[in-house]
Design goal:
Elements: H1 3-6, H2 23-37, E1 41-48, H3 55-74, E2 85-92, H4 97-109, E3 114-117, H5 121-133, E4 138-140, E5 156-158, H6 163-177, E6 184-190, H7 193-205, E7 212-219, H8 227-236, E8 240-244, H9 247-259, E9 266-270, H10 279-284, E10 292-295, H11 303-316, H12 324-341, H13 346-354, E11 382-386, E12 403-405, E13 408-410
Parallel strand pairs: 1-2, 1-3, 3-4, 4-5, 6-7, 6-8, 8-9, 9-10
Antiparallel strand pairs: 10-11, 11-13, 12-13
Helix pairs in contact: 3-12, 4-5, 6-7, 12-13
Length: about 400
């Protein structure tokens, strides 16, 4: 099926060397197969911020991963390994690169056959380095910066869209929906590798959207206030405000804009941790009306998505956020790979992940498949708008309206 059939938005080779050198080698292989069949528990390491300013997001991703583990175990575990059960080992990177590295080392020492993580790009850079050194497969849950997968690593794989995909989709969507009176944007972004990469990419390529960048306002994600940044924003008076950051800091930005009663023609996020999270409606109330984001999302036309959302709500008494779905999906991809590898050998598992063609997922895309850089070739971003209105007054693009999702429209 064409990728573009799924682009409903406004929007490896497997290598296994078997050495057979007489009866002694055959006996060794038989013993290894017997050991594999006796596996009772398979440890998966999860590295996310469980404390600190990003604990809300880290706990949500970890909860979703645990939900997937529970589902897999309840369905009989990894059948090719005699029904071996998965166990999630939880690490806390606190959103810090050095902590992510030390947690990766710890979980590998404790026997994790694969790792997932880490929510921030800077922490993912260091954690994947440790996984590569230890030849341990690493499935990136959330971390968008493109160059994470440009280092020639063989053990890291990313399911979500990378920053270049996000940014190019943002530029394309903005060109489609902009009106003649929308000409300028200002970018307000957190200043780590994540936010800076997006801001730089958009500035370099803004001509694709027929727009002009009039300002670039960075800030630390741990900031307690964005008052001075919003004052700068008011002075720039852009037509569109473009926000890039995590939940806590971008929610602060939206609140400050609303409290100052600043008026812009639109507020649009790129991979925005706040705008695409259902919690923002609780925090901003009517102030969330009209906010837009170019981000990932579950497939709202899928019954499987509805079941997962309901199961998460029942288990954790909370709405599942879009970033949490990648914790869930990462575990599902790992389980599928373990089934096909029929082994907990890290190299065999790595090769099975590289061969992934996973269709039983909740994402708005074709099968999850990885290229030689470990990128999901079918990953894509969609344009989302929070609205209590109907879509009848919105311009229709080349693709039809995707769906209405709770209080969100997904184009």
């Amino acid at each position: 099926m064409s990728r573009f059939k799924w682009f409903l938005a406004v929007i490896l080779v497997f290598t296994m060397v078997v050495s057979l050198a007489g009866c002694g080698s055959q006996a060794s292989n038989n013993n290894n197969n017997s050991a594999q069949s006796q596996v009772k528990e398979i440890l998966i390491g999860s590295i996310h911020p469980m404390t600190g300013s990003m604990a809300y997001e880290g706990k949500a991703i970890t909860n979703a991963a645990q939900l997937a583990v529970d589902e897999i175990n309840a369905a009989g575990g990894i059948k090719s390994l005699g029904g071996a059960k998965l166990k999630l080992l939880v690490g806390d990177n606190q959103g810090l690169p050095d902590k992510a590295a030390s947690e990766a080392q710890r979980l590998i020492r404790e026997g994790a056959v694969a790792l997932i993580g880490t929510y921030t790009s800077s922490a993912t850079v260091t954690a994947t380095q440790e996984a590569e050194k230890a030849q341990t497969p690493f499935l990136i849950t959330v971390a968008a910066t493109t160059n994470i997968q440009e280092r020639g690593f063989k053990y890291s794989f990313r399911i979500q869209p990378n920053a270049d995909t996000f940014s190019n989709d943002f530029l394309r969507y903005m060109k489609e929906i902009k009106t003649p009176d929308i000409k300028t944007i200002a970018i307000v972004h957190e200043n780590s590798l994540f936010g800076t990469y997006f801001a730089d990419y958009v500035k370099k390529n803004i001509a694709k959207a027929d727009l002009t960048v009039v300002g670039d306002i960075p800030y630390a994600a741990s900031t307690a206030t964005l008052s001075s940044e919003v004052t700068k924003l008011a002075g720039l008076n852009p037509d569109l405000v473009v926000g890039v950051g995590y939940y806590r800091d971008q929610a602060l930005l939206m609140k400050a804009i609303r409290e100052r009663n600043l008026k812009f023609k639109g507020i649009v996020g790129i991979a925005n941790g706040a705008i695409s999270d259902p919690k923002i409606i609780q925090d901003l109330g009517q102030g969330a009306e009209g906010l837009m984001d170019v981000n990932y999302r579950w497939n709202p036309n899928s019954q499987a998505s509805e079941k997962v959302l309901a199961a998460y709500k029942e288990k954790f008494n909370d709405n599942m956020s879009p970033h949490a779905m990648f914790g869930y999906t990462a575990i599902k991809v790992l389980a599928d790979s373990l089934e096909r590898a029929a082994s907990t050998d890290k190299n065999k598992l790595r090769d099975a992940i590289a061969q992934t063609n996973f269709t039983n997922h909740i994402l708005p895309q074709d099968a999850i498949q990885f290229n030689d850089k470990g990128e999901n070739i079918n990953a894509q971003a969609v344009l989302i708008q929070i609205s209590s209105l109907t879509v009848k007054n919105y311009k229709k693009l080349e693709s039809p309206v995707f769906a209405r999702c709770s209080s969100f429209f997904v184009f």
